[in-house]
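G.,

No rush on this.
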Amino acid sequence: MLEITTRLDAETVVEKLKAAIEDQGLKLVAHINGQANAAKIGVEVPTDQILEIFHPAYAVRVWEACKSAGIDIPLRIHVSEEGGLIHVRTRPASSVFAPWGSPQLDAIGAELDPKLAAVLDALEEVMS
């Protein structure tokens, strides 16, 4: 698990993550805003958001390597608030693809792991 904890506000964190995702040549596939969805039913919850990220070129490679592995894409970044801090977590792509036992997926994971780490590292730069 890749993880970073910050005192930055959730809005800043999400915007910085979105910019870093683009900087790494990835695409934001979906942004699921859990607290906004909970508010629709009158419930207030702390920050809980998911950023789903990938890129069509990687998706095609995943499908070519192992069509069933498509269940594991897009990759996800979880932004949550606990104890007044914002936590950002993601699984390394290599860990996500490892159970498939595919050398091609292992190679894709190895390419994506540094990109995911760089996305989270972008927050460290802001906190410095």
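When you get to it, here's the other one too:
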Amino acid sequence: MANTLQFDLVSPERKLASVQATEVQIPGADGDMTAMEGHAATITTLRPGILKAVSAQGTQAFAVTGGFAEITASGVTVLAERAIPVDDLSGTILDAMVQEARDLAALAPAEMKDAAEKTVQDILALRHHAAH
């Protein structure tokens, strides 16, 4: 058996996952990263994207809109603004996420416009990946 780490995914509504994973793929704000047992302690902010946990039971994939991940040598805890199992995603949910991001971008002050537009683009990319 490969070395594992504890993976927990929590959103404001509920705990979505708690498994022993061999690796966790994280859509970090500074780029994608993969956490495995023995990883250096890190905290990273999430960007909208697909988070995956690989375990003996298979791969669980979740669409996340933001939040942060705390990584230690023995575990990964993700606190997501919103997390939806990819299997539960529908075009309606994704369209609503895109519209919500666009609405927030329209209201963003001038100094936040670039970041708000990047979030819209990240969610459009998320929609594209989830559709395939």
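The chain has a mean pLDDT of 89. The CA atoms of residues 105 and 116 lie 5 Å apart.

Enjoy the weekend,
O.
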